[in-house]
């Protein structure tokens, strides 16, 4: 979903919120894996001071970290007119009240047969996204709540493609990158300019750059160390090895 599509097309917003509403329970049911837990352990022990994430799912928070969310989070809803923030769970309840038949269809999807009439023909894709026929989220079938404060358009508080990261957040992240004595990139191809400029900022200040990611990244030419492997396998091992081990107290 691009930012332009979302703000300019009511049908695009309806398509987005229909799928997002239906998949929310599965989304928030995800638990942090070894990568998240390892980074949280490093942070707790003071080996990592400052974390920036491109993720919008708050799994780092579930693991115990408190990162800066570069691209925002789906756990908050923002009004594009007045800037009012709303908790996502409250928004989900509003959607459910406005669309009781849709809510029952989602329940049927989670407990019954995918693609049945009871769940409006919805199917869960292998990547966790949903296949939903457009006829099920037409204007007369799916209603989107407006901002309670000003009746403005509501959007997940994330940076969509074509949108810009808010300047105060950019400044905070840039300050962190420029003050780092070393920078570790984990599980990112660094394809977005918002992420790449942070790596460049750290490199410009002379900080060594290490990258742990499967496959090439946009910042490989800046890396002093590149490990092409699964972070969930590498980080736990590093924590148990030699000088990289983290004291238990």
Automatic annotation (TrEMBL):
<keyword id="KW-0479">Metal-binding</keyword>
<feature type="binding site">
    <location>
        <position position="150"/>
    </location>
    <ligand>
        <name>Zn(2+)</name>
    </ligand>
</feature>
<dbReference type="InterPro" id="IPR003000">
    <property type="entry name" value="Sirtuin"/>
</dbReference>
<dbReference type="InterPro" id="IPR029035">
    <property type="entry name" value="DHS-like_NAD/FAD-binding_dom"/>
</dbReference>
<protein>
    <recommendedName>
        <fullName>Deacetylase sirtuin-type domain-containing protein</fullName>
    </recommendedName>
</protein>
<dbReference type="Pfam" id="PF02146">
    <property type="entry name" value="SIR2"/>
</dbReference>
<dbReference type="GO" id="GO:0046872">
    <property type="term" value="F:metal ion binding"/>
</dbReference>
<keyword id="KW-0862">Zinc</keyword>
<dbReference type="InterPro" id="IPR026590">
    <property type="entry name" value="Ssirtuin_cat_dom"/>
</dbReference>
<feature type="binding site">
    <location>
        <position position="147"/>
    </location>
    <ligand>
        <name>Zn(2+)</name>
    </ligand>
</feature>
<keyword id="KW-0808">Transferase</keyword>
<dbReference type="InterPro" id="IPR026591">
    <property type="entry name" value="Sirtuin_cat_small_dom_sf"/>
</dbReference>
<feature type="binding site">
    <location>
        <position position="79"/>
    </location>
    <ligand>
        <name>Zn(2+)</name>
    </ligand>
</feature>
<dbReference type="GO" id="GO:0017136">
    <property type="term" value="F:histone deacetylase activity, NAD-dependent"/>
</dbReference>
<dbReference type="InterPro" id="IPR050134">
    <property type="entry name" value="NAD-dep_sirtuin_deacylases"/>
</dbReference>
<feature type="binding site">
    <location>
        <position position="82"/>
    </location>
    <ligand>
        <name>Zn(2+)</name>
    </ligand>
</feature>
<dbReference type="GO" id="GO:0070403">
    <property type="term" value="F:NAD+ binding"/>
</dbReference>
<feature type="domain" description="Deacetylase sirtuin-type">
    <location>
        <begin position="1"/>
        <end position="249"/>
    </location>
</feature>
<keyword id="KW-0520">NAD</keyword>
<feature type="active site" description="Proton acceptor">
    <location>
        <position position="71"/>
    </location>
</feature>
């Amino acid at each position: 979903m691009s930012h332009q599509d979302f703000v300019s097309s009511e049908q695009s917003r309806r398509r987005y919120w229909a799928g997002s509403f239906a998949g929310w329970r599965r989304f928030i049911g995800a638990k942090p894996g070894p990568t998240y837990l390892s980074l949280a352990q490093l942070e707790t022990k003071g080996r990592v001071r400052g974390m920036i994430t491109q993720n919008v799912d708050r799994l780092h928070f579930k693991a115990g970290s408190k990162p800066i969310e570069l691209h925002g989070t789906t756990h908050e809803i923002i009004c594009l007119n007045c800037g009012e923030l709303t908790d996502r769970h409250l928004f989900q309840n509003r959607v459910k009240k406005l669309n009781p038949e849709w809510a029952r269809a989602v329940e049927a999807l989670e407990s019954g047969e995918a693609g049945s009439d009871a769940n409006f023909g919805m199917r869960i894709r292998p990547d966790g996204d949903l296949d939903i026929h457009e006829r099920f989220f037409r204007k007369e079938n799916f209603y989107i709540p407006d901002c309670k404060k000003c009746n403005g358009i509501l959007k997940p508080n994330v940076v969509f493609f074509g949108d810009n990261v808010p300047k105060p957040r950019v400044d905070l992240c840039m300050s962190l990158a420029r003050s780092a004595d070393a920078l570790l990139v984990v599980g990112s191809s660094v394809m977005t300019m918002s992420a790449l400029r942070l790596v460049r900022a750290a490199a410009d200040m002379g900080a060594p750059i290490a990258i742990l990611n499967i496959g090439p990244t946009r910042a490989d030419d800046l890396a002093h160390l590149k490990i092409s492997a699964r972070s969930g396998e590498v980080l736990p091992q590093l924590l148990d090895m030699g000088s990289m081990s983290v004291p238990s107290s």
